[in-house]
Write a structure and sequence with these properties.
- It holds the Pfam family DUF6533.
- It comes from Exidia glandulosa HHB12029.
- Keywords: Membrane, Transmembrane, Transmembrane helix.
- The protein has about 80 residues and is mainly α.
- The protein has one domain.
- Helix content is about 65%, strand content about 5%.
- The protein contains 2 helices and 2 strands, in the order βααβ.
- A two-stranded antiparallel ribbon has the order 1-2.
- Helix 1 runs antiparallel to helix 2.
Length: about 80
C-alpha cells in the first residue's frame, strides 16, 4: 500500500472538506445578515415569529457544526489508511 494512493491517518476525507466549506458558507451568510438580524429580530419584543426564527437559526447551525467535526475528525479514524 503506497502513501501516494492513501489518505494519512486522521486526514479529513473529501466529504469532510465539503462539509467544512458548507459550514463556512453558512457562517459567511450569517455574518452578512447579522446587522439586519440584530435590527429586525433581536431588538424587538418576544413574539412567536421571533422564537421560531431563533429556533430555526439554531437548528440549522448545530447540525452543520456536528457534521463538520464528525466528517473531519472521526470519519476515517478506524483505519490507519483509506485506499482511494
Amino acid at each position: 500500500m503506497s502513501m501516494a494512493g492513501a489518505l494519512a491517518y486522521g486526514t479529513p476525507t473529501p466529504s469532510g472538506y465539503l462539509q467544512i466549506a458548507c459550514t463556512i458558507w453558512f457562517l459567511y451568510d450569517w455574518i452578512l445578515t447579522l446587522e439586519d438580524e440584530v435590527e429586525y429580530i433581536w431588538r424587538r419584543k418576544w413574539t412567536f415569529a421571533k422564537g421560531l426564527f431563533i429556533i430555526i437559526r439554531i437548528s440549522a447551525i448545530l447540525p452543520l457544526f456536528v457534521e463538520a467535526v464528525l466528517d473531519t475528525t472521526l470519519e476515517n479514524l478506524s483505519d490507519p489508511y483509506v485506499e482511494l
